[in-house]
């Protein structure tokens, strides 16, 4: 059997660990052959592929990013996309696909299997940790560690100048990175997309912090919004990607300006951006990504297509791709409420 492997969507730490585990187990236990598709779904569309064997994956476990490249290509938006994928898989002798990605990449895999019978197994990947069918996705732990370290460092510069520091982290629809890193880093305010924020309340927390002779740290997810209006912050010139997403940017800068205007306290913004995705994966992400890879190739071996591997507690299970991509996992209201006592 020959198995194709691709990584789609935004890069994140741990992708290479999955690729390595898939190839090593597939070759050593089952004598499978592997084809790596370049740049996400663009690879099967164009036939851009490279051979994968054990020497090819040697040494990639600690490396960030993906050796296969990635893109946000949506084959269902391309002319004759499914036909082209079928032809390229046949030409390369690929019998099944392992797609590693988030909701968009896995959504494509689900449709290819359900509507067109192309054998696919999914592996969940997103630093946002917002896939509902799995307790955790790899990449999230590394992103939280990076954001927490940044917050730790910003505390000292905020205190030195007694100014407000607003830290913008990733999180379009889900505030898991903001919540976890803000809590771990001792932030004084945490703002998430699931709970619209009252700017007067935020400024009240900031002011109370200064009254206690401390400089406040405000952590805000990129998708957070105020209660008084549908503020849309984006890079308008960038347009939409092939899955219909806008590029969010600017909530941190806007928030810092509003806090300074309303409180009279000097405020600055730090946007962590893509640094949250880059670099060496944490030990947990390497562990989780490796286990996902081992179980993904086992699913291929057993013919369980149209499934995604997922973490439930400490066990790896398989869930339908359609279920995995049906909705996002957002921060529950009660989870956010329990940490609000630490604000201000």
Automatic annotation (TrEMBL):
UniProt name for this protein: Pyrophosphate--fructose 6-phosphate 1-phosphotransferase
Location in or out of the cell: Cytoplasm
Keywords: Cytoplasm, Glycolysis, Kinase, Magnesium, Metal-binding, Transferase
Annotated positions binding Mg(2+): 103
Gene from which the chain derives: pfp
Enzymatic reactions: beta-D-fructose 6-phosphate + diphosphate = beta-D-fructose 1,6-bisphosphate + phosphate + H(+)
GO biological process: canonical glycolysis; fructose 1,6-bisphosphate metabolic process; fructose 6-phosphate metabolic process
Main location group: cytoplasm
Feature type site, description Important for catalytic activity and substrate specificity: 104
EC number: 2.7.1.90
Limits of the Phosphofructokinase domain: 2-299
Site (Important for catalytic activity): 125
One Pfam match: PFK
Binding site for diphosphate: 10
